[in-house]
Amino acid sequence: MIKKRGMIYxxxxxxxxxxxxxxxxxxxxxxxxxxxxxxxxGRIHMPPPIHQQFEGHNFVICSFVxxxxxxxxxxxxAPYHHSNIDAxxxxxxxxxxxxxxxxxxxxQFTLHPAGVPHGPHPGAIERSIGKKETxxxxxxxxxxxxxxxxxxxxxxxxxxYYKSWMTQEQLTH
Length: 173
Ligand SMILES: [Fe+2]
Known about the structure:
This protein has helices at residues 124-128, 151-154, 168-172; strands at 2-4, 7-9, 52-56, 59-64, 67-68, 89-95, 109-112, 133-134, 137-143. It is mainly beta. The structure holds fe (ii) ion.
């Protein structure tokens, strides 16, 4: 039923609306696999919402999936440094090569609390230039309220993770 200017009209599709190769729009109330998710790509770097797959009233889920990188000849595929003031960012690295990170492997989680600046590791921006595509698979949850860390979670903390943005020169001085 479609509502227009206060009136309700019936509207019947000839086929199921999801019986298509590509669907750009709401998927509620259906669930679908990350392997069927296709982000929007562009000539220059696209903002993080292109990766958004699901949204609740207090969180979003973004899926980082195999895709073409930015294809302007002068584009830098690595993301820009940023601080997300609206949400914490929890990233789960599932598979593939994580271009913007130096020491992150499959199965690891990162947590960047809201407002804390973060971005590509040293050398990652330069390394990304000229790259055409990625095979990465990662899931990000952005809760709008601060995440509380359990003592169990603290046990698997990589204590010197914050140092991974420091260059070799900074580490030795
Ligand atoms: Fe971020």
